[in-house]
Amino acid sequence: MTDRRVLTLLAAVAMGAPSSxxxxxxxxxxxxxxxxxxxxxxxxxxxxxxxxxxxxxLGRASDPRVSAPGAFNLKxxxxxxxxxLGANLFQLxxxxxxxxxxxxxxxxxxxxxxSAETANASGQxxxxxxxxxxxxxxxxxxxxxxxxxxxxxxAERCE
Amino acid sequence: MTRPAAVGLGIVVLGALAVAPTSAQSAKGAPxxxxxxxxxxxxxxxxxxxxxxxxxxxxxxxxxxxxWARAIKAKVRDRGMPPWFADPQYGKFANDRSLTPxxxxxxxxxxxxxAPQGSGPAPAPPxxxxxxxxxxxxxxxDLVIELPIDWKIQADGELxxxxxYTPLPFNETKLVAATQxxxxxxxxxxxxxxxxxxxPPGTVLGRGPAWPGGPITDYVPVPAKEGVQVVNTGDLAVExxxxxxxxxxxxxxxxxxxxARPGQARTIRGDRFRYIRWNLHYQATxxxxxxRPSIGVWWEDGRLLNVxxxxxxxxxxxxxxxxxxxxxxxxxxxxxxxxxxxxxxIPPNASNWTxxxxxxFQDDVTLWGITLHMHLRGKDVTYVxxxxxxREEVLLRVPNYDFNWQLPYExxxxxxxxxxxxxxxxxxxxxxxxxxxxxxxxxxxxxxEQSWDDMFLTSxxxxxxxxxxxxxxxxxxxxxx
Lengths: 159, 481
Hints:
The structure holds two protein chains of two kinds.
Chain A: H1 3-15, H2 20-24, E1 39-48, E2 56-61, E3 65-66, H3 74-81, E4 88-93, H4 101-105, H5 110-113, E5 130-140, E6 143-147, E7 150-155
Parallel strand pairs in A: 4-6
Antiparallel strand pairs in A: 1-2, 1-3, 1-5, 2-4, 5-6, 5-7
Chain B: H1 3-17, H2 33-44, H3 62-65, H4 69-77, H5 101-112, E1 143-146, E2 151-153, E3 162-167, E4 173-182, E5 189-197, E6 203-209, E7 216-223, H6 236-240, E8 250-251, E9 258-259, E10 264-269, E11 275-282, E12 289-291, E13 294-299, E14 306-307, E15 309-312, E16 314-318, E17 321-322, E18 353-360, E19 365-373, E20 378-386, E21 392-398, E22 409-417, E23 422-429, E24 457-464
C-alpha cells in the first residue's frame, strides 16, 4: 500500500466518514497523475508558538484528510464541529488573510497596498480556537506544514 | 462611461490637438520619425492603431502619424496611451507596452519640433493580415470558425450580454498554439468571449429568444420537447475538472491574438464538449449595425513540450467573512448568471468591497501569466504568491482596474513555483458614486455576465514541470480547415 493510500485510509478512519468520494474530488490537471502534495483538511487548536508573532500552529490536530480545492461546504463544517481532536502538530503558513487586519498588515508587503479599513482579513485564526483548516500539506526538514487556503473557526475554546 | 463614449472623447481630444498639416521643420538634434519615432509606434501602438482595428486612427506610417503628433504627445505624457495598468513596483511583463520616460520624451520632442520625418528610407511598418488576423508570423489561421449569422444590433439603448451556441467542428481533443477572435464590427462590439461547452441540461439547440424578451434567433438552447431524450449533462463536468473544455479566447479592446509560448499549447476538449458558446456583448452606436464574429485557430505545430493550464482562484473570503459553499443560496438571474456568494451582493454605495480567491499548486509548476476579469465596479486587484515556507511575493498589482481594457499579463520571465504554494487574488470593488464608471451606485450588484452586475474571474496560467517533454513530437488531425 502506498503512503498516499495509507494517509487517505487513516484520514477516513479519523473523520469517521468514507473517504472514497472525498479522495475522488482531487482536481488534478488532466494527465498530471498523482500530485506531489495533497490538499488536506484537519481540525485542531490554533496556537502561536515560538518563532515570531505570525508563526502559527495547529496543535492537537486530527489526522489530515485529503480534500478538494475551493471552499468548505456546510456539511463539512458541521461534521468538523463534532470531530475529535488528534495528536498531530502542523505549522500553518499563508496565514495573513485569516488573521485580523493588524496581523495581515504585518505580513510581507501587504501594508504597501492595504489599509486597516480595506484589509480582507477573516479573523478566523485566533489563538485558542478550535478551527477547521485546509491547504496543501508539505513537509520541510521533518516539519509538516499546511499552506492555508481556508480557515473556519468552529468554537471559541478548543476542546 | 461606455467604451464608445471614451473612444469618442479620445477622438475629440486628439482632433483638437492634431498638428496642422504644415511643412515639418526639423529642429537641430530633434528626434525624427524614421530614426526615433517609428520603432516606438510600431512596437507599442500599431497593434491597435492600424486599419480595421479598434483604434480610431492608424499610426503605421509617417503620413498616418504626423497629423497626430501633438495628440500623441499629450496622450503618452498623461499615460493615457498605451493602455497598461500594472504597478511597475511588482513584476515585469512581456506584453508591457507602456513607454519609458525616455520614449515619452522622444515623442514629445518630436511633436515640439514639428514632427520631422528625417532622412533615409522610411522604416517598414510591421506586417499584418488584411483580414485582421494578428499572428506574429503573418500566417493566416489554420481554421476559421464563423458565427453562422449576421447579428443585428439596434441603434439605441443598452444591450444585454447574451449567449449563442454553435456546434464545435471537431470531436476530439485538439492542441492549439494560438487563437484570435475577430468581432466583425469593432465599433459596435463591447466584447466577445468564447468557451467550449455543452448545452444546459434538458435543452437542445433551437430557435428562441437570445435573452429573456430579446429577439428570436437560431443557435440558442431551448427546452427539449416532452418525450425527447436529451443526452447532455450541461457543464457539470466543468465543476469537476480544473481545466474545462477551454475556449478560443476573447475579443476585448487591447487584446489581439493569444499565442502560446514556443513549445506550448492549450487543449480544446472536443471529446467532452460539443459546442462553442459565444458570449456576445454589443453596444449601440446610434445607427443600426450588424456583426458576424469569427474565431481563428492556429494548431500546435508538432513541437509540443508542455500543455498550458489555468488555475482558477477558488472563492474564500468576502468582506472579511469566510465563504462556505451552500451557506448562501445561489439566485438565478437569467441564463448564464447567478449570485455568487463572493458578491452576494455588493451593497449600494460600498466603495471598498473586497474579495479574496485562492488557488493551490499540488506539483512543481512554472507560472507564465495572469488573467483577470471584473466589470464596471472593479477597482483594484493584487496577486500574491505564498511559498510553502510562508514567504510572500506580489506577482501583480493593478491599482486602477479599467473595464474597458481587460489585458492579460504575461510574465517577462517564467516563475518556478514549488508544490504546496498558493496564489491569492485580492480584488476590490467600488459601487459608490466616486467610481465614474458606475452606472448605478444606489443598486445592489449581483454576480452575472451583464455589465451592470459584476464578476471576479481570476486565474494564473501555468505548466506542470513533471510533464515537460524533450524533443517529443505530437501529431494531430489537421483536417478541419
